[in-house]
Design brief:
- The structure is a single chain.
- The protein is built from 15 helices and 14 strands.
- By secondary structure, the protein is of the alpha/beta class.
- The protein folds into three domains: 84 residues, no CATH class; 259 residues, Type I PLP-dependent aspartate aminotransferase-like (Major domain) (Aspartate Aminotransferase, domain 2); 84 residues, Alpha-Beta Complex (Aspartate Aminotransferase, domain 1), CATH 3.90.1150.
- Strands 4-10-9-8-7-5-6 form a seven-stranded mixed sheet, sandwiched between helices.
- Helix 5 runs antiparallel to helix 12, helix 13 runs parallel beside helix 15 and helix 14 packs across helix 15.
- The longest helix is centred in the C-terminal third of the chain and has 22 residues.
- It is globular and about 60 Å long.
- The chain starts with 22 loop residues before the first helix and ends in a 6-residue tail after the last helix.
- The relative contact order is 0.16.
- It binds pyridoxal-5'-phosphate.
- Pyridoxal-5'-phosphate binds next to helix 7.
Length: 474
């Protein structure tokens, strides 16, 4: 069915029509022939390895693939194998790959003007559309090129607005790898980079499956938020400018907190006259079945950072803010918040085209509909396989915890997870399944049929692990 030794399926490079339920891209299914990686992939990968410095993404190293092109929710490697993409460049490829409208828009703009700084009609349109889809209180924005850069800018803005300097973030949080935000990484990956920025405090996120207080929501009364309050009181210098939170945590494993959590977090921020920064790099732009992750809890953020899916692959990010905050100095002084590439004409076109396409193709609704189906199918897998400990999801942001037993909740070993990843790949599914907190975040254009196929592959992989792998140990 999915693995075949036959001829590679049709892999035309152009897509006649976009949209989750129309056009060739929506019909395209995975098809893998021969060993993975194939000979051409191997040759290109090895050539690259000769000069590329170590430290690239684990998924690319584990896969060993060289990609040739993408189409909708599928990727095609150099040997012509077709994979279903449950990664989307870690939430970047919102419109899938090679969306014809984006290809045309960028191509046309590249032939006219690529360098930024001055106002252009395209940039004016991008800012207008951004304000149009933004939460109602966030009417102004700045454009940047990467996520960390936008979060750094958001912190500078919060400092300008409050005249304070400290920040509180969360365990499991990720906001980028630059100096000002590295201390907000809520895991061990920052070890070895000290000293980290001063005045940054981390408290437990509402990661209920792995609650460090061993409590259950709602009977816990959101103890983690009370802990945060005490942490600010007892550990800070009394100068908290901002609380920064992902409305749902991506890097930690697509973790979904209870809806009342962010409401309580905002009230703590207010108690200390701090601003709430919602880092929506992953959760924004329709990923969770709403335009913004904060909509699920009804919380109004003071500052919001967006990126990834916002440019559908073009490197662009944003800081969204309210009118009053936007005038805070020094951030608001001429040249104080600009950058060389932020909001350049290509980036502006990418943002505008992404918003138009999300609206035209009803991709937020698609994320909600296909995501609900995926969640239902994953819950069935939880019933079927003992090692599926937790399943969660909002729209097309879904996570699973694979565990050795459901009492200790000890994670499956790295070795077993690499088998999961490679068995999925062999069957044509590219998925962040190499960590025991499995992340599923396909392009928003994925069709129901493609998503069903992905789950069928996952079912086959889990059956293989159950029957052929000593998953209890390592
Ligand atoms: C929530 C969040 N914020 C910020 C970032 C940093 O983005 P970038 O890798 O573009 O710097 C990421 C990246 O994964 C993220 O998930």
């Amino acid at each position: 069915m999915i693995v075949s030794s036959g001829k590679i399926a049709d892999e035309g490079k152009s897509r006649p029509a976009g949209g989750p339920d129309g056009g060739a891209a929506a019909d395209k299914l995975p098809h893998v022939a021969g060993p993975i990686p194939g000979p051409k992939s191997r040759e290109i990968f090895e050539a690259e390895q000769r000069h590329i410095a170590p430290g690239r993404q684990r998924i690319s190293l584990l896969a060993g693939l060289a990609l040739d092109h993408g189409e909708g929710a599928t990727l095609v490697d150099a040997d012509g194998n077709v994979y279903l993409d449950f990664v989307a460049g870690i939430g970047v490829a919102s419109l899938g790959h090679a969306h014809p409208a984006m290809v045309n828009a960028l191509g046309e703009q590249a032939g006219r003007l690529m360098v930024g700084t001055f106002a252009t009609a395209e940039r004016a349109e991008a800012f207008r559309l951004l304000a149009d889809v933004a939460p109602p209180n966030l009417t102004r924005s700045h454009l940047y090129s990467g996520g960390a850069e936008a979060v750094e800018a958001a912190l500078r803005l919060a400092r300008s607005a409050t005249k304070k300097h400290e920040v509180m973030g969360f365990w499991g949080g990720f906001h980028g790898k630059t100096g000002g935000v590295m201390g907000l990484i809520g895991d061990e990956s920052k070890h070895g980079y000290g000293p980290l920025a001063a005045g940054q405090y981390l408290v437990p996120y509402a990661d209920c499956y792995r609650c460090p207080f061993k409590l259950k929501h709602p009977s816990c009364g959101l103890h983690c938020v009370e802990f945060a309050r005490q942490q600010i009181r007892n550990s800070s210098a009394g100068a908290i400018a901002a609380v920064i939170a992902e409305p749902m945590q991506g890097t930690a494993g697509n973790v979904i907190p209870p809806d009342d959590w962010l409401v309580a977090v905002k009230s703590v921020a207010r108690e200390f006259d701090a601003l709430l920064i919602a880092d929506e790099m992953i959760t924004g732009f329709g990923r969770t079945g709403r335009m913004w992750g904060i909509e699920h809890s009804g919380v109004a953020a003071d500052i919001l950072t967006a990126g990834k899916g916002m440019g559908a692959g073009f490197p662009v990010s944003a800081v969204l803010m309210g009118e009053q905050v936007s005038h805070a100095e020094p951030f608001a002084k001429p040249s104080a918040s600009s950058s060389s590439y932020g909001g350049n004409p290509l980036a502006a076109v990418a943002v505008a085209q992404t918003i138009k396409t999300i609206r035209q193709e009803k991709l937020v609704e698609n994320a909600r509909r296909v995501g609900a189906m995926l969640l239902g199918r994953l819950l069935e897998l939880k019933e079927k396989y003992e090692f599926v400990g937790d399943v969660r999801g909002r729209g097309l942001l879904l996570g699973l915890d694979l565990v050795r037993d459901n009492t200790s909740r000890r994670e499956l070993s790295r070795k077993v997870m690499e088998i999961v990843f490679k068995e999925a790949l062999k069957r044509g599914l590219l998925m962040m399944g190499y960590f025991p907190r499995v992340r599923i975040n396909p392009p928003l254009v994925i069709s129901e049929r493609q998503a069903q196929t992905g789950i069928e592959i996952l079912d086959e992989v889990f059956a293989y692990v159950r029957d052929h792998v000593d998953w209890h140990s390592g």
